[in-house]
TrEMBL record:
Gene Ontology MF terms in the entry: DNA binding; FAD binding
GO biological process terms, semicolon-separated: circadian regulation of gene expression; entrainment of circadian clock by photoperiod; negative regulation of DNA-templated transcription
Protein name (Swiss-Prot/TrEMBL): Photolyase/cryptochrome alpha/beta domain-containing protein
Cofactor(s) listed: FAD
Amino acid sequence: MNASVNSLHWFRKGLRLHDNPSLRLAIDGSSTFRAVFFLDVDSLNEINISRTKWRFLLDCLLDLDSSLRKLNSRLFIVRGQPIDVFPKLIKQWNITRVTFEYDGEPFPQRRDDSVKRLLESEGVEVLVSTSHTLYDIEKIVELNHGNVPVTFKQFECLISKLRSPNSCVPDVNQDLFVNCKTPVENNHDKIYGVPEYSALDLDEEEHERGEWVGGEDEALRRLGLLEKEVAEPKTDTQQEKNSPFPKSSKLSPYLRFGCLSVKYLFHRMNQIYKEVHGKPAPLSVHLPLLWREFFFVVASKHPNFDKMKNNSLCLQFPWEEHADQLEQFKQGKTGFPWIDAIMRQLLSEGWIPHLARQAVGCFLTRGALWITWEEGFKIFEKFLLDAEWSINAGSWMWLSCSAFFAKHSQWMCPVGLGEHLDPQGSYVRKYVPELKDFPADYIYKPWKAPIEVQKTAHCIVGADYPQPIIDHQEARRECVDKLRAVYQNLVSKVSSNVGLGHNAMHWFRKDLRLHDNPSLCEALTNCRTFHAVYILDPVSARAANVSANRWKFLLDCLTDLDKTDICVTKLFQEWNISKLTFECEIEPFGQRRDVAVAVLGEEHGVEVISKPSHTLYDPEKIIDSNDGEAPLLIKTFENVVRQMGPPEKPVDAVNKSMFKGCICPVSSDHSTKFAVPHLDELGFQEEDVTSGELWVGGEQEAIKRLTELEEKVLVGNLKKSVEGLDALRPSRTQLSPYLRFGCLSPRLFHMRLTKAYMKVKCQPPPLSLYRQLVWREFFFTLASRNPHMDKAVDNPLSLNIPWEENEKALDAWKKVRV
Ligand SMILES: Cc1cc2nc3c(=O)[nH]c(=O)nc-3n(C[C@H](O)[C@H](O)[C@H](O)COP(=O)(O)OP(=O)(O)OC[C@H]3O[C@@H](n4cnc5c(N)ncnc54)[C@H](O)[C@@H]3O)c2cc1C
C-alpha cells in the first residue's frame, strides 16, 4: 500500500491559485495539504519596509486565505524563520512533501538550498518549479555556456533561440482537492490566522486603502481592464487619467507578489494581439517584461548586485556624501516641487510611474545631487510596492549610467520636465498641498515668485516650503563635468574587479599593428576582458598556394604582435564575447565574409564594430564623392581625392594605459593552444625560406624602416645626396609588404613623410609625391566594387585580349629559366 503523502506548500512570492505549478504539485496526489506563509510578526517593525507595503502583503494573504477557504482549505501563517520552524512543522504535521516556487535571486537561493538540505535530511521530498519568471533562469545561463548575458541585446538573442515561454498550468480548483484535505483546527484563526492590520500599528489614516489593494482577485480584475484596453484601444488614452505620466498597466506590485503570473500575462497579451492583428505577437511586444526577465537573469549570479563594492557590473563613480540633501530628498523636501511631489507620492502610496522614477533617480544621482544610486535603491526597496531586488538594483545602475547603458542617458530637468508634462501643475498641487494656490507660472520654481505672489498663495518659500537645496543648472553642469571625467578615464576607473564593459575580441587580419588601429582602439574602449585573435588554420595554410617566404613574413608579424601581448562562434561562446572589432575589409570576398560574421554576431548578441584603416581614405567615401561610382581613371581618382583634402590623422597607438582595468585572460595552456605556430606546423622547412633577413615581418621592423627612411630624407637632403627627397617616393621605400600586412598604417606613413617633406621644403608635398600610394588607393577603390578584379573573364575593367596558352614558357618563367 502506498504511504500517504502529507504535503506543505511554502508560499513566498507566487501568492495566487492560477498558474501555480508548485502549488498544484503539493495538492495533486496528496492526502493532506497545508499552505504555509512564514511571517515573523514580532520583527515587522525591525524590517525596513514601509507600512503601506506590509498592508499590501496582508491584503494578498487575506485574499489567498479567502480563495483557499472556497476550496475548503486555509492559509497557515506561521510565526518565525523557515529554517528554525520547519523541523517542528514536519514532525507536528507528519509532512512528507514540501513544494515551493523557484527563486533565482542569490540570497533566497542560499536560503532555499539550506532549507532543501534540511528537509531532505529528514526524508522529505522537495519539489520546486519556476513560475516567477517567463523562462527558467538556469536554462538561459546554460544556453550562454554558464555565463549570464551582460547586455540586454545579448539576452534578447539568447531568448530568441528558446521556444515561447511554457503554457500556464490549470488553476487550482475544487477538482484537485477531491482526495486531498486540509486539516483545520477550531483555533486556526488564533494560531495561524492572517494578522490584523492593527499588528502593523497602522493608524486610521494609514488603514485607508488608496488605489493599491493587494491580492489575486484585484490583480485579475486589473488584467481584465488591461485586456479590454488592448483589444479596443482608444486614441486619447495615452495619458494616465488625472496624471501627467504616460499610461501603463500598473501591474508591477501584483507581479512582484506573484498575485499575477507573468506567464499568464504574457500569454493573455499574445492572444489579444493575435485577435487584434491576426498574427502572432513578436517578442518585442513584451519589451517591459523582457527587461524584467533580463534583470532577474543578470542578478542571479551577482550576489552584490545591489551594491557598488564587489559588483563587477557596476562602474565605480566617485559619488559624494551629502547627508542633509539626501534626507531632504527622502522626505520630499528638496524645494523642487516636481521632485517633491513624486517622492511624496512614493512615500504615501508606494508606487510611482516609470518616468517619475527616472526623474527622481536622475536628480539623486547623475543629474543634480551626485549621491550614490545605492541610496536610491534603499529608498525604493523600502517604499515601492513592486520593489524587486534584481529589477530595482538593475534599474538604478542603468539610470545612474553605472551599468547596462549604451549612451549617456538624457538629463531630466527638475523644473522643465514638470512644466512640459503638466503645465498647470495639478500633480504638484495634489502631492505638495503647501503649493496648491501657487500660480502655474511659478508652480515649478516657487523661489522665483515675487513675495507678493507667495503671500497671496499662502506659502512663503523658506518658511512654508523649502528653498531649493541646490542651483539645479549649476549642479547639472558640475555633474556633466564629473560624468565626462569618469568616461574619459573609463578604463582606469572601472573596478579593479573587472568592471562594467565589454568582453571584447579584436580580430586581426590585415592590420597587424598597434599604431593607428581605430578598430583595435574601439575594442579597448569600455572593455573589461580583451582577446586579440588571429585566425590561422594550419591545414588550409598547407593547401594554400602561398610561398614559404610569405608565410614566414606573416609569422614574423604575428610574433611581433604577440610580443606586445595576445571557429568565431566557438570563441564568442567560450569567452562570453559581447563586442567584436576588426578592420573593415575592402575587397569583395572579405566584405562578404564580414557581413556573414556580422550576422553571426547579431545571432549571438555580440556588438560588431569595424572601421577602415587599410587605406588612406575610406573607399566608400571616395565612391560617394564620385556620385556613387568608383572612378575608372587615375586622373578622375586624383581629382576626387584632392577635393577630399588630406587623409584623416592616424589614431593614437595602443598603449599600456588603454589596458588599465581591462583583463586579458591568458590560460595556462595558452602556448599550446593559441601561440604563433612554427613554420614546420604549416608544412615548410626553414630552408624553404629564401628571403632571409631581407624581409622580417612585423610592426617593429616596419617602424624601423619608416624611421630610417625619414632620416634618409632629412640627412640625405642636407648632404644633397642621391637619396634626399627622392627617397620619399613610395616605389623606393620597400615598405609594401608592411603595408600589405598592415604592420604599417598608410596614414602614419603619409603623415610622417609629409612632416619630413615639410621640414625640408617648408611647404606641403604635392599629391604627385605619393603617386604610388594613390595608385594603391585607386586599385583598392576599384576592387571594392569588382568581385572579378583578379580575372580576365567577367571583369568589366579588363579588355578581352586574346592571350595564348603556353605552359612550357610559363613554367620556365616561373622557374626563372627563360
Ligand atoms: C530606478 C528604477 C527602479 C525600478 N525598480 C523597479 C522594481 O523594483 N520593480 C519593478 O517591477 N520595476 C521597477 N522599475 C521598472 C519600472 O519603472 C516599473 O516596472 C514600472 O513602472 C511598473 O509599472 P507598470 O506595471 O505599469 O509597467 P508596464 O509598463 O505596464 O510594464 C509591465 C511590467 O513589465 C515590467 N517592467 C516594466 N518596465 C520595466 C523595466 N524598465 N525594467 C524591468 N521591468 C519592467 C514590470 O513588471 C511591469 O509591471 C524601476 C525603474 C527605475 C527607473
